[in-house]
Amino acid sequence: MAQLFEHKLPDYTFTERLGQGTYATVYKAYNKTGARQVVAIKCINKSSLTKSATENLLTEIAILKKIKNEHIVQLIDFQWNSGFIYLIMEYCSGGDLHRFIRVHKRLRELVVRKFLQQLAKALQVLQQHNIAHMDLKPQNILLSSMRNPVLKLADFGFAQYLREGDQASSLRGSPLYMAPEMLLSNHYDHKVDLWSVGIIMYECLFGNAPYASPTFVHGTRNAPK
């Protein structure tokens, strides 16, 4: 029996749910025309969006429309109706890096080195456009496939435009991957992304983040001073 979905877009057929968050649900779908391209569609409930969440969404759309790179997930199109906003994205069949680490446990150094090179290329492109991701973590890094995966950065909702010399102070991101200056509520610059990359690479090598604290408070206390 075919599964029924509440979402309908004229050119797409929804096939399965991939994941769900606070504001959005992501589905696998395919384009009914042409080559029947497989895509991921992020369905965002307008009624659940706060002012800050709306601003984050607009930032994400603007960045993904602007940046085209093999290591940054592609925004193919976006549509909306009275109840939802739909981001039609490149589909990455390998899932996210968090799942990949859980499956493979400790990754081989050769694989981690390859992942680091790919992340560095993505960050280089972002820096050229004065963009800091601000929420780098395994869950926000997608894999093109499970075999010979290519990493692709996703989820740019917390991203900020930071030029060389600019500083920010707002708290954003995920505590386990935040740089100490963010956790301690100090001013910071775009280089906080580099700290997050270091934590991610550690997790790839050893299977867990170095500061695997269950709460934000413990994370703050354990962060290097």
Automatic annotation (TrEMBL):
Entry's Gene Ontology BP terms:
autophagosome assembly; autophagy of mitochondrion; piecemeal microautophagy of the nucleus; regulation of autophagy; response to starvation; reticulophagy
| Entry keyword set | ATP-binding, Cytoplasm, Kinase, Nucleotide-binding, Serine/threonine-protein kinase, Transferase
| Residues reported to bind ATP | 42
- Source superkingdom: Eukaryota
Q: Which reaction does it catalyse?
A: L-threonyl-[protein] + ATP = O-phospho-L-threonyl-[protein] + ADP + H(+); L-seryl-[protein] + ATP = O-phospho-L-seryl-[protein] + ADP + H(+)
**Gene3D superfamilies, per the entry:** Phosphorylase Kinase, domain 1, Transferase(Phosphotransferase) domain 1
For this record, the Gene Ontology CC terms, alphabetical, are:
autophagosome; cytosol; phagophore assembly site membrane
Enzyme Commission number(s) from the entry:
2.7.11.1
EC class name? transferase
Q: What would be an example GO MF term here?
A: ATP binding
**Which Pfam families does this entry report, sorted A to Z?**
Pkinase
- The Protein kinase domain covers 12-225
The record's annotation in InterPro entries points to: Atg1-like (IPR045269), Kinase-like_dom_sf (IPR011009), Prot_kinase_dom (IPR000719), Protein_kinase_ATP_BS (IPR017441), Ser/Thr_kinase_AS (IPR008271)
Matches recorded under PANTHER family: SERINE/THREONINE-PROTEIN KINASE UNC-51-RELATED, SERINE_THREONINE-PROTEIN KINASE ULK3
The family this protein is said to belong to:
Belongs to the protein kinase superfamily.
Its name, as the record gives it, is non-specific serine/threonine protein kinase
Organism from which the protein derives: Ornithodoros erraticus
